[in-house]
Amino acid sequence: MKHKTLSIIIPAYNEARTLFTLLEKVHHTRLVENIQKEIIVINDCSKDETEAEIQRFMETYPDCPLQYHKTLQPRQRSGSAGRDSKGQRGVDRHTGRGP
């Protein structure tokens, strides 16, 4: 039987306070019909401890299929342009396949 993969893209900017809990919830969520998941976190130059929280999660759950990407330059944050560019980078890196 061929496995399907769901790619979950999480853009993060200064999310240190909530990111670990969010990642735990996503990691512990079981999907139907043997669908696998991959988590892609894109840190958009956070100025808080977001990166440390991502690293803590990866050390706590080494079996979790998490890809971590860090942008080198901050993106525009007015309106939705920043979110759109982070989301596109996540889409570019996903491996999930449709039916």
SSE arrangement:
Blueprint: E1 5-12, H1 19-28, E2 36-43, H2 50-60, E3 66-70, H3 81-93
Parallel strand pairs: 1-2, 2-3
Helix pairs in contact: 1-2
Q: Major sheet: order of its strands?
A: 1-2-3
Question: What is the general shape?
Answer: globular
Mean pLDDT: 84
Report helical residue fraction. Answer: 25-40%
Please provide a brief summary of the model.
The chain has 99 residues and is α/β, with parallel strands linked by helices.
Describe the structure.
This protein has helices spanning 19-28, 50-60, 81-93; strands at 5-12, 36-43, 66-70. It has a three-stranded parallel beta sheet with strand order 1-2-3, with helices on both faces. 34% of the residues lie in helices and 21% in strands. The longest helix has 13 residues, at 81-93. It is built from three helices and three strands. The mean pLDDT is 84. By secondary structure, it is α/β, with parallel strands linked by helices.
Observed structural traits:
99 residues; alpha/beta; 3-stranded parallel beta sheet; 3 helices; 3 strands; globular
